[in-house]
Amino acid sequence: MRKTPKIPELIDPHALNTSDGQEAWRVLAIMAEFAIATERLRGIRPAVSVFGSARIEAGHPYYEKTKEIARLLSNAGFAVISGGGPGIMHAANEGAYGGPAPAVGLNILLPHEQTGNEHQDIAVDFRYFFARKMMFVRFASAYVIMPGGFGTLDELSEVLTLVQTGKSRRIPVILVGGDFWRGLLAWMEDKLVGEGMINAQDMGLMQVIEEPGEIVEAIFRFYESRGFVPSREEREKMLNL
To answer: What are phi and psi of 10, to 5 degrees?
Structure first.
């Protein structure tokens, strides 16, 4: 019978006793990344984070619709935050770039892909995914989710989980592309709600809206009676993400 290793057997004793300080310096680098990003982004509210596939090219209907949404958001006074890369991220920055509110790119440094696109009024580079993800949530007054892959689904799940569990304030989460999202939403209703994995009202944390102008109107309508400035309680939540 194969012996199952115990935790101490999996730890390199040299790594525990090394004096080169690499791990400690990495922690400091992470702290510095949070501090720099917070300082660079602290004046951009209200802002809308836009997500979607990096594989969509200019001219695709999703790309062009993203540009129009971002243009309307910027004209309405919303900073537009994207991941700073190609595809939908590029479309979001391109649509907002040069508008009255800034186009923001949260760029991730990867070994073989993604360099920041050229349509960024404010660019922040990240080495650590989790620091970058926190900034998407912390500074957003709304999420606009275009069709995308694993990364897009990850961001959607992240914000839904934070709002559902009370770790973040409630914000509009808008899915664009009903045909794309229909199967996923039907599965959520059938399996997640049907088998008691989430409450039925949790489905109301997101909505599908197709028209760019209606997206902007829905965001304003959500904040109509409360304003965009987070309450003291909401600020405390964001500090404890």
So the answer is: -95, -5
